[in-house]
Structure formats: C-alpha cells, structure tokens
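Ticket #4471: complex job returned nothing on first submit. Input attached below:
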Amino acid sequence: MRRLPYLWTLLFLALAVLLSIAIGSVFIPSVDLWRILTGWLSAAPLPESLKTFAFIIVSIRLPRTALVLLTGAALGGSGAAYQGLFRNPLADPYLIGVASGAGLGAAAAMSIQWPYTFWGLLAVPLVGFLAAMLTVLLVYSLARVGKTVPTTNLILAGVAFSAFATSLTSFLMLRSTGELRRAFAFLLGGFTQAGWNPVLTILPFLAIGLGFLILSGHALNLLQFGDDQAQQLGLPVTRTKTLILVAASLATAAAVSFSGIIGFIGLIVPHVMRLWWGVDYRRLLPLSIIGGAGALLLADVLARVVMAPQELPVGILTALVGAPFFLWVLRYAKNQGYW
Amino acid sequence: MTMLQIENLFVSYGPRCVLHDVSLEVNSGEVLALIGPNGAGKSTLVRAASGVIPLDGGTILTNGDDLAALPPMRRARYLAVVPQAVSLPPAFTAWETVLMGRTPYLNFLGQTSASDEDVVRRALQRVEALDLAERRVGELSGGEQQRVLLARALAQSTPILLLDEPTAHLDLQHQVSLMEMVRQLAHRDGLVVLTALHDLNLAARYADRVALLVGGKIKAAGTPRQVLTPELISAAYHLPVAVVPHPFADALLVLPGAAKPPMS
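Support reply: We reran it on our side without changes. The output follows.
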C-alpha cells in the first residue's frame, strides 16, 4: 500500500462508480452491467431484457454518478488546496465563506420564488454560484493589507462574513416559510436534482479550477515554508496565492451551487491522503481529487440505500461514515504526526 | 567579480521608519557581518534586500543590475537567503527541502532533472549533511536544520548569500562549524556573503568586515578592529565592554561588563 498511490485510489474510484451505477431503487446486477457495456462498445443492439436497465443507467444513474463524482472531486481538491494555502489542518473548502455565500444566494433566490421555467430551475444554482464568488471577492478585498493578503486576515474576514451570511440566511428562511423545507434541504446537501444539465453546467468551472490546482502542487509545497521563504526561493507569492484561492473557490462554488453544502469530504479526504502518502502537494492534490470523488460516491450510494425509498441528505452520511473511518486511519497510519 | 551594493535604503513598517539611509557594499569573497542591538533593523535589512518588504527609497544593485526591479524568480538566481531554523514544515525530508532551492531554475510544476539532483547532492555534501538526506526535517536538531537551510541556499547557486542570524538557536559547536562553513563559502568559493549576527565574538572571528546598525542607521563600517571598539560597542549596546585579544585565534574578544542601572 505504500507504493502505487494512484493505482489504489483509482481502483477505489472505479469501484465507487460501479456501485453508484448499480445501486438504487432498482438494483442492476454486475453481470447485466457488463453485458450492457459490451453491447454499447460493440454497437450491437441490446436485447429487450436489458433495455430498461440501459435506460435507467443513461438517464438516471450516469448523470447522477457524474454529478456526484465532479462534486466530490471539487471538494477534495479545493480542501487540499485550502489546507496548503492556509497551512492549517482545520481548513476546508468553506473556510472563507463560499458555502455561506452560496447558501445566502440560494435562500434569497428561493425566497423570491422565481417561476419554474428553465431559467427558473437554474436560477437557484446560478445565484448561489454568483453569491459564492462575490463572497470570496469581498472577503479577499477586506483581508488585503497593501499589496499582500495575510493568511490570518483571510481566515478572520471569512469567518466573520460567514457568520453574517448564515444569520441572514436563517432570517430569510424564517420569513418565507413555504420555501423553508427546500432551503433546508439545500443547506444539508443532496443530489436529488441530478441530471445532465447540472453536470454540463459545472464542468467548465471544475475543469479550470481543478486543472489549475493540479498544476499548483509545487507552489503549495513552497508556501509551506511561509510567505517570506517562498518569495526568497523565487515564487511570486501574492499572485500565486490569489490564483490558487480563485481556482479553489471556483471549483467549490460550482459544486455547492447544485449539490448544496456537503461537509466533511473537503476536510477529511486530504488528511487521509496525507496520512497514507505524504505531504507533497504535487501528489496530494490529484489524490485528494480522486479520493474525494470516490468518497462522495460511496456516501451518495449509502444515502440512497440506508432508508430506501427515502433519500437521506448526503451531508449526514459523509460525516456519519467518514468520521469513524478517519479516526481509524488517524490511529494506525504510519505518517501520523507529520502534518 | 560580483558585488552587492545597497545604496541609501529607506524601509518603514507603516508610519515607523525602520531603516534610514542605509548604504553597504559587500565584495565577492568577503564576509560582511551586520551587528547591532535587537530592533536595530538587521533582519529588516536582510528581508528588504531579498525583496520581501517593499523599499521606500534607495536601490539594491549587483554589478550595476537593479535587484529590486526584478521579479522574484529572477532575483532568486542572484540572491539566496538562509533564514533562522524555526517552524520549518516538519514532514519534508532534508533532500526535499534542499530541492526547493532549485525553484528559480524549474518550471511552474517544479519538475526536476538529474542535474538538479546533482546540485542538491553537492550542496548537502558541502554542509556535511548528506547522511541526513532521507530524514524528516522535524526529526533533526536545530544545528542540523540550519545546515539543511544553508544547503538549500547553496542549491540556489547564487553569487550572493544572505544569512539572517543563522546561529541564533544553535549551541556552541554548531555555531562555530556553521560560521566556518560560511567563511569558506566566501574565501574558497568566492561568494558575496552578508550575515546578520547577534553574537559579536562570532563576528569578530569570522567576518572580514563588520557594519554596526543602531536604530536603523549604520553607525560604523569597516574591519572588525575598526568597528569592535569599546567606545562604539558600549554606546550601541548601552553596556560597558572590554575588547581584548583572543587567547588563541587571531581575532578580538568582546567582553560585556555590568549592566548600567536604569536611567533615573
């Protein structure tokens, strides 16, 4: 297990994808999955018995799997980036207010009850996304000191603004009691509204955000030595920190806008990867992205299955299952003590 | 022949002027020790010269090239800094830490080649820390960490080396061995070495020239014998001192007297 981190993590992801496609209110046995897949690949028409399964896969399971995968990837990747950027093991993707901003935007959009046209269906996620990015911009501007952006200021401004946004959100939710349940469901996080539209909508943002983060591993390694030393070694510190912040926030905001606020993945997956495979961010970032995708897929499968036919909010399961697993890893991993 | 010219430097932290019209020159093959009481601005000068703090005025030149105008990546090829060995990321190995020193020559992804690894190996050998290469920095002692940081600066392959109180947390034998290495880097390898030092006797023994910084201004600059005089040192440190010849080395020894009672 010491070697081949990519192999093990990708295997984990593949397994999670498989389970996500197979499991649901209708269980698709792996034998049939295999026959459908080979049928598609050979371009032969599928036998009647499999056509229902194939339909379920294409129109329900695949889009949902894709959305969950992308969301988990975004949370894992930006969680690792935030932990590296802030040099703080408690950092998660929501540290500087992306979640609270998105929540506020979503609650505001829901409370004015946009009509359910196509634009209306996208209204909540869109406003959520814009509100999230605006929040980051606001927090960043508040935290600036001259030409630099001190890390502590970012954290403090983010925490303060999050508290403000959260209370405003609660107020909005109280005022528009009709939408209360919907808003609450959004805040707990879930994938009930999955489809190909959300996937295609968030894909470009994730590609840009996560793509940049994967390339920033070396820069994040340098930042671990502190802003001064990183600069003295040749890194343009302020510019790099800003770009990483924007990229991570872009990915998080896009993910949160459709899936709501799912906690724990962004915090814990990077730690597990770090405990197993070390602190080099050139490796930690891609591994956190893959691991986050797999972990959220597993949580989503459980969310569908545990209280079937009802779906639990995913956020409940990520913590419920993730916490014991993480504690086990913390206890027995070789790399412990070397954060 | 490279040299470092600091001319008429003004640096402030907000409204407070911390460095006032500071001018220094260090030549290739020379160790200049920057001494002065706490708060005089020694660390500030090192940070300003390396581009971490903006300058309010003045220039930093090397052979006529303006260092302050260069982007960080280019400046890091001229000038390397050895900071104090405090709060280093504990999880990186010594090898990985020294490899960071190659950053000015790597692309954004930080991809290294065999020649980079050669430089790292030679840097670790130079500071006698090659056997520590696979150890995690968090496990090393203060002296070992400081040597790793020196190796990292050497891996940057720069003509100019700045050190910020490198002996601050080291015990006696590590102080001496580090300063021996630093002196060799100047005399044998021809580097331009500027080091802030709080220990006057190390400055007396290992520096070719000394500059005394008090309250942000250069009070004196010259050879150790010219600067480490009882008058200058006791005025700067508010303490009577005796300066005697070192019993077995060709250097001076600064001995502090009793502290003056607080001004009534």
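Chain B is about 30% helix and 30% strand. Closing as resolved unless it happens again.
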